[in-house]
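Lecture notes, part 5. Sequence design as translation. It can be helpful to think of inverse folding as translation between two languages: the language of shapes and the language of residues. The source text, in structure tokens, appears below.
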């Protein structure tokens, strides 16, 4: 998906009608039971709030946006939803950055975005192949891979030198008081004050929508073999 196509998609997504019918939410049931989790089919329900979550986390670590060095690990798979998730996050925060490194084996997908960031913000977006990830430098990592072990292999991530957020590899959950339980590396941090007060009102409708989409995604995976 090109960057211009994403812009049109994002505009549609942000419209009131689209949000009411398509926003998806995953929460732990009232009985405390967890739903089955698989990183292959997981949909992260907090993508649209990721910029606020990032602001909260870097404030906790005492990192100003001017000093933020963001590493984005590309999804790698041919999934439209994953790519949309990446663009949704970058569209919210990239204009604030002085440093952005994308670890990807398909850098051509980012050419239009890179050109726009340089022309509008003077930001030079760097791209690095996944085979060279050990040379990556940064203090915040957004890992959009569903499979792969870059986190375990790269000491900058595993030694807590950087904030590491696995977007799909671990479930992101919510408590009854709307605190988001954010997986950071092997730990979990509580982020509060992000979600709107009515976040849970449409949870049952959104949960059915999410389950239907998960079924479709599983069917596609099985068809691929």
């Amino acid at each position: 998906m090109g960057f211009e196509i994403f812009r049109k998609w994002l505009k549609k997504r942000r419209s009131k009608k689209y949000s009411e019918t398509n926003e998806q939410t995953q929460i732990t049931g009232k009985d405390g039971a967890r739903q089955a989790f698989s990183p292959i089919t997981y949909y992260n329900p907090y993508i649209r709030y990721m910029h606020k979550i990032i602001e909260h986390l870097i404030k906790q670590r005492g990192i100003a946006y001017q000093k933020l060095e963001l590493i984005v690990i590309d999804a790698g798979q041919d999934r439209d939803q994953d790519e949309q998730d990446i663009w949704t996050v970058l569209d919210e925060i990239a204009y604030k950055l002085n440093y952005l490194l994308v670890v990807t084996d398909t850098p051509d997908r980012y050419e239009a975005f890179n050109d726009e960031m340089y022309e509008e913000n003077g930001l030079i977006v760097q791209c690095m192949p996944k085979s060279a990830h050990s040379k990556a430098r940064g203090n915040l990592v957004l890992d959009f891979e569903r499979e792969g072990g870059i986190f375990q292999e790269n000491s900058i991530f595993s030694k807590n030198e950087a904030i590491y957020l696995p977007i799909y590899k671990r479930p992101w959950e919510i408590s009854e008081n709307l605190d988001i339980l954010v997986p950071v590396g092997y730990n979990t941090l509580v982020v509060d004050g992000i979600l709107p007060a009515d976040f849970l009102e449409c949870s049952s409708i959104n949960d059915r929508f999410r389950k239907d989409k998960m079924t479709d995604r599983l069917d596609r995976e099985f068809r691929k073999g």
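The translated text above is only one of many valid answers, since several sequences can fold into similar shapes. The mean pLDDT is 78.
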